[in-house]
Design brief:
Elements (H helix, E strand, L loop, with lengths): L2 H21 L7 H7 L2 H13 L6 H22 L11 E5 L7 E9 L2 E8 L3 E5 L7 E7 L2 E7 L4 E2 L4 E2 L7 E7 L4 E8 L2 E6 L4 E9 L2 E6 L5 E7 L4 E6 L4 E5 L4 H6 L3 E3 L2 E3 L9 E6 L5 E6 L1
Parallel strand pairs: 2-6, 2-10, 3-9, 3-11, 10-12, 11-13, 12-14, 13-15, 14-19, 15-20, 16-19
Antiparallel strand pairs: 1-4, 4-9, 5-6, 7-8, 16-18, 17-18
Helix pairs in contact: 1-4, 2-4, 3-4
Length: 299
């Protein structure tokens, strides 16, 4: 049997197996698009086969075909795992249902250059929606005692180490919402991002953000007695919206003139407002002096 005949026979077997898995609802139709992206692997395999087909190392030609079949199965299964959660060509969603034993959510968002919108809250621990024609994030979840540990890691949008890349000139965008009932500790890391974080209906307890060259909108509510926020960013713009009745304690002397103009005063090294002594809700802010722009609005 020639390596070419073996290859085509195995390809037909692979297609038949994929169709059977699709008919059995083990995988969905999204894998066809994912296989198309990885099609250059077939060309590489055929090239290797041609090199060794008439040599004493002919067995390599057969091994290459076997590896190609396993790679096709792996790509199809990965692209269909969790319904539509990993498909490049479709808008996809991720949902982690509420767990009554969870008392705290810790989430880390590794955004790189991805834009993000957090708007409203919901009954799930987390719900995410990710645009079509974008690389979907790598998502990991672990329950540690009564804490939900979540991580969303952006992918770079390239394949085969950058040899294959589809550029649609569309910004990648994540839309997330967290639980309305369970406190959230959130970390965000990225650069060149547009971040719209409306956390007014989310019980945010802690926010750590490091984002350079970013446009940041952050709205915080009164659902937690104490909220700690730390934001670092070189040449980033921050627009902050806070409840008028909340106490404010801000550690930064770079914006002294502006802070005094909106009614904050310097007390024991911190800028505070009049409500700091009369309310049980307050926000503790620490801002980077490298920010390009900063403003506070009250609602």
């Amino acid at each position: 049997m020639t390596p070419a005949r073996f290859r085509w026979g195995m390809m037909l077997i692979l297609i038949g197996v994929l169709l059977l898995l699709r008919n059995a609802d083990v995988i969905n139709d999204n894998f066809w698009g994912d296989l198309l992206i990885w099609f250059p692997i077939v060309l590489i395999a055929v090239g290797i086969e041609k090199i060794f087909a008439r040599s004493r190392l002919k067995v390599i030609s057969y091994i290459t075909t076997i590896l190609l079949v396993f790679a096709g199965l792996a790509i199809a299964l990965a692209g269909s795992m969790g319904g539509r959660s990993a498909s490049y060509f479709n808008e996809t969603t991720y949902r982690l249902e509420k767990d009554e034993s969870i008392s705290l959510i810790r989430a880390v968002l590794e955004l790189d250059g991805t834009d993000i919108t957090i708007r409203d809250s919901g009954g799930d621990l987390v719900y995410g929606r990710f645009d079509e024609l974008t690389q979907k994030p790598k998502i990991s979840y672990e329950k540690v005692d009564d804490v939900a540990e979540l991580e969303f890691v952006s992918r770079d949008g390239s394949f085969l180490g950058g040899a294959v890349k589809i550029n649609t000139n569309r910004p990648q965008d994540w839309s997330l919402r967290f639980s309305r009932d369970i406190p959230l500790e959130l970390e965000c890391y990225g650069d060149n991002n547009d971040m719209h974080l409306n956390m007014s209906t989310t019980p945010l307890r802690l926010l750590t953000m490091i984002a350079d060259n970013a446009s940041i909108y952050l709205k915080i509510g009164e659902l937690e007695k104490k909220v700690s926020v730390s934001i670092e960013g070189d040449e980033s713009d921050l627009r902050l919206r806070l409840p008028r009745s909340i106490g404010i304690q801000l550690q930064d002397d770079e914006y002294r003139t502006y802070l005094e103009s909106i009614g904050l005063k310097l007390v024991n090294g911190f800028f505070v407002n009049d409500e700091i002594d009369s309310t049980i809700n307050f926000i503790e802010l620490e801002l980077d002096d490298r920010l390009d722009g900063f403003s506070i609005e009250f609602f």
